[in-house]
Amino acid sequence: MITCIAEVSSLRSALRKLPRPLALVPTMGALHEGHLQLMRTAREKVGPEGTVAASIFVNPIQFDRAEDLESYPQPLAEDLELCEKEGVNLAFTPEVGDLYAPDRSVLVTESLLARNLCGATRPGHFDGVLTVVLKLFNIFQPDVAVFGKKDFQQLALIRRMVRDLDVPVEIHGHPTVRETDGLAMSSRNRKLTSDHRADAPRIRRALIAARDLAATGEQSPTVYLDAARHHLCKEAPSGFHIDYLELVDHMTLQPLSKVTSPATLATACFYGEIRLIDHVTIRP
Length: 284
Ligand code: PAF
Fold this sequence. Notes:
This protein has 284 residues and is α/β, with parallel strands linked by helices.
């Protein structure tokens, strides 16, 4: 049975009555199959008697563009129905004022893994993500929290925060879930025009074409990046542009001078105002 709770104080009293272990699935709503798989994994982690909780909160402080925040889809009634179908025990749907004091003045900042990729092109984004995730961890005190691997930089930062701040929670990363044409599932996909949606699998195709070069023993980052850029831009529709395309070390997320250990080739691309991300791992 699902309980929809907005205020932190009522959430806390509800949590005291729910059985442990507890798995938390933090989301911004507009749920899709990818989120539902996170919920199923959360259930596997805690078993039939444990508690699966989901938060649905479009966190304003992680948005770097006002128009992205304003147009972010928020189909709350549908989301709650999906949570119920997935056997979520508790859905937390706070308002901004429930989580943030008007004079809030503390942020969680990571200063190394956040330097490149989305951290470089979305200033302040990861401060907002880490701050809200730490708040959710403090409120729920989950035994395990489940996140998608699609946001691999976000996942790396959350793991680093948990390690460096001694947060007692197990972080589980769930593989990227894809549409049948290869496009990584994202709440933003539903905002694409039909032409852009039809074109969007090019992102995955471009990354795979570049990754295939690993079979030839290629070690030059430039060669991988040029190949991916070529496939991303070749006959791309109007409105398409690359936000970033980077090849970084798989663990440190820093740029590489030579690909001799596992590396992540990652991109963010815009279709009009809609920004999509994806990545592949290159194993030399
Ligand atoms: O990945 C997301 O949906 C968000 O960044 C998260 C982790 C729920 C924090 O708002």
